[in-house]
Amino acid sequence: MKSTLEEQQAFVAVVDCGSITAAAERLDLTVSGVSRALNRLEKKLDTTLMRRTTRRLELTDEGETFLDRCRQILDAVESAEEAVGGYQDQPRGRLRINAAPSFMQFTLVPLIGEFRRRYPGILLELDTHDRFVDLLEQRVDLAIRIGELEDSSLHARPLGQSPRRLIASPAYLERAGPPHRIEDLASHSLLGFSQLDHLNEWPLTDARGEPFHVKPTLAASSGPTLLALAIAGEGIACLTDDMTRLPRSQGQLVAVLPTLIQYRAFRVNVVYYRQTALTQRARLFMDYLAEKLPGDYLDA
Questions:
Q1: Rounded Cα–Cα distance for residues 183 and 181 (Å)
Q2: CB contact at 8 A, 222 and 258
Q3: Torsion of CA 223, 226, 231, 233, to 10 degrees
Q4: How far is CA 74 from CA 13, 26, 84, 159, in A?
Q5: How far is CA 28 from the centre of its chain?
Q6: DSSP string, 10-43
Q7: 93-160+266-298 has which fold?
Q8: Which of 68, 140, 154, 295 has the lowest tally of Cβ within 10 angstroms?
Q9: What's the CATH class of domain 5-84?
Q10: pLDDT of residue 257
Q11: What is the pLDDT of residue 297?
Q12: DSSP 3-state assignment of 195?
């Protein structure tokens, strides 16, 4: 006897949500109904898909294999329904987007309003993490990744590049004196990242011709916090142009050592799981980003 879509949906939901109770809430079913669906599925397949304890669920090897196939089937069904269900003119459904807090706040959020007006049937969920998340585990449809991609299971669509520059407030530079050489930075308050140390490599070259790696005088875990510290006059930071565009235009921040900056922009990609059938709403959002991102992102 073959498994049904409802049983496959229940299985995927339990894996994604981490428990039968949470999956039942997501699917608007009873806990017993989801549990029975899982039992029927395992009986039909004559195998154990997951080991269930009072504390956690753990997939078996067979469960891992079946999960991947279930996701492909459910995504394909959703895409087929979109194609024949009258959604081409009015796309509908949930679209979950993941991005770093700084990119979400300073780049995506200003673009969201127009996208929602264009496609009122698409229900957006905006998810932010400083660290890369597992797209499948977090039920993410699209993610914005900045920098080198290491996960071969992801398909990437380049959106451009995000330049970085050194910035500080006029008040700080008046108080501490502006640096004129890279060596002058040693006597300044340098604002950097506490957890993402690769972001503390600034687009400068030291006297030996090596990349300039900063040991922060004051560290923070997120870009928006570093931006606020720089505006408050706490030191010099190195941030992407999308974060600093507005405060620079308002005179809250000014460039530091602009003639010594080397162009080492981070590549910006929108990514999705390679084995996932891309929905129309996901394609529409990617096309919208390519249309609306500022010019310096489209310099790739």
A1: 5
A2: no
A3: -170
A4: 11, 16, 16, 28
A5: 28
A6: HHHHHHHHSSHHHHHHHHT--HHHHHHHHHHHHH
A7: D-Maltodextrin-Binding Protein; domain 2 (3.40.190)
A8: 295
A9: mainly alpha
A10: 95
A11: 52
A12: coil
Domains 5-84 and 93-160+266-298 share a fold: no
Does residue 212 contact residue 206 with C-beta atoms inside 8 Å? yes
The answer for residues whose C-beta is within 8 angstroms of residue 163's C-beta and 6 or more apart is 240, 241, 263, 265, 296
Domain boundaries of the chain, sorted by first residue: 5-84, 93-160+266-298, 164-260
Kindly report, residue by residue over 127-142, the tens digit of the pLDDT. Answer: 887 665 555 555 678 8
Architecture of the domain made up of 164-260: 3-Layer(aba) Sandwich (3.40)
pLDDT of amino acid 300: 35
Specify burial of residue 136 (Cβ count, 10 A radius: 0-12, 13-18, 19+): middle
Spell out, as residue ranges, where the chain has pLDDT lower than 50: 298-300
The string of pLDDT tens digits covering residues 222-262 is 889 999 999 999 999 999 888 898 899 999 999 999 999 88
User: How far is the CA of 284 from the CAs of 106, 122, 216, 240, in angstroms?
Assistant: 21, 10, 41, 26
